[in-house]
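Hypothesis: this fold can be encoded by more than one sequence.
Test: take the structure tokens below, design a sequence, compare later.
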């Protein structure tokens, strides 16, 4: 009887592990297929004025804000771009659900037929992508033209900067799969410790809460980028001391503070990737420029999300736990 139970338990463990592996493989395959479909769509509707990475950047930005904005419906399709009824059909069009390319154009709408079926359908990916490509083409081929088209469309400078940054990343790497993350300090060869301290009280400079996770480590322990991204800020802050801010392709701002030094080869506007050296752990901050030693050396790591209107901090601890595990697995 005991032997039978043991064999059953072993069988269940083997089945569970196998099922988990198959499930993970299927998920990875499904994600790869989705990325391939998106890339094909961008390539199909690029032109000599609008490169694919402009379309991809706008599409990713739309996907980002839909994920965190309850007031915006999520577009469940390959493409995430969606237009208002007024802009698609024309503000003066008496039929706001109009799908006729002829009447849409007559009333000044921008909706177009991208797949040749005679219908300008805002729910069709090809129609949506041709419409966006045509809209951008009207402004010109330079980056400044692209920025102008984005500002006219979104009426928000932060949205423009975010989309331009995403486009820069996609152009540089010539791909859209930029979702790898690593732990911000080496997981081997250095001692470090951290725990969830989100929301803890902080008193210097006025009563406030802790918006991040502190990773304690020795002076000059390397600090690396956790993600792909572009450096937005690099310099001194009276709270964070020497700090670096990196914006990724998911509208997330990664904040590395209290550094002892910077990587001298980097500057604002540079592209970084997971593992790029940013600087070293220190104890700078809480005073005028150069102040250091008011607390034990540690990296303050924060994450902030931009939703198209505002930006807010969220707890990075769960992400750090996952990235630490992933980084350890890669180092084996």
């Amino acid at each position: 009887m005991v032997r039978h139970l043991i064999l059953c338990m072993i069988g269940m463990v083997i089945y569970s592990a196998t099922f988990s592996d198959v499930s993970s493989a299927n998920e990875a395959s499904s994600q790869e297929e989705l990325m391939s479909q998106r890339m094909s769509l961008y390539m199909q509707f690029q032109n000599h004025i609008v490169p694919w990475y402009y379309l991809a950047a706008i599409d990713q930005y739309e996907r980002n804000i839909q994920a965190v904005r309850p007031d915006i419906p999520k577009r469940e399709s390959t493409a995430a771009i969606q237009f208002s009824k007024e802009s698609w059909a024309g503000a003066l069009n008496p039929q706001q659900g109009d799908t006729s390319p002829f009447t849409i154009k007559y009333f000044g709408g921008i909706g177009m037929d991208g797949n040749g079926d005679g219908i300008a359908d805002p729910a069709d990916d090809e129609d949506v992508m041709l419409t966006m490509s045509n809209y951008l083409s009207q402004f010109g081929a330079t980056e400044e033209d692209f920025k102008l088209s984005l500002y006219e469309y979104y009426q928000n400078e932060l949205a423009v900067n975010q989309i331009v940054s995403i486009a820069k990343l996609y152009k540089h790497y010539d791909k859209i799969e930029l979702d790898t993350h690593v732990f911000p300090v080496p997981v081997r060869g250095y001692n470090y410790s951290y725990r969830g301290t989100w929301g803890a009280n902080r008193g210097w400079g006025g009563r406030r809460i802790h918006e991040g996770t502190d990773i304690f480590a020795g002076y000059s322990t390397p600090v690396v980028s956790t993600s792909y991204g572009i450096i937005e800020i690099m310099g001194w802050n009276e709270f964070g001391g020497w700090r670096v801010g990196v914006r990724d392709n998911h509208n997330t701002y990664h904040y590395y503070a209290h550094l002892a030094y910077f990587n001298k080869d980097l500057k604002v506007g540079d592209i970084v990737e997971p593992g790029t050296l940013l600087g070293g752990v220190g104890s700078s901050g809480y005073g005028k420029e150069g102040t250091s030693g008011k607390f034990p050396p540690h990296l303050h790591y924060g994450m902030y999300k931009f939703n198209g209107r505002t930006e807010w901090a969220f707890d990075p601890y769960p992400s750090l736990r996952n990235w630490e595990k992933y980084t350890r697995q890669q180092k084996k």
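The two ends are 40 Å apart (CA to CA). The longest helix spans residues 2-45.
Hypothesis status: open.
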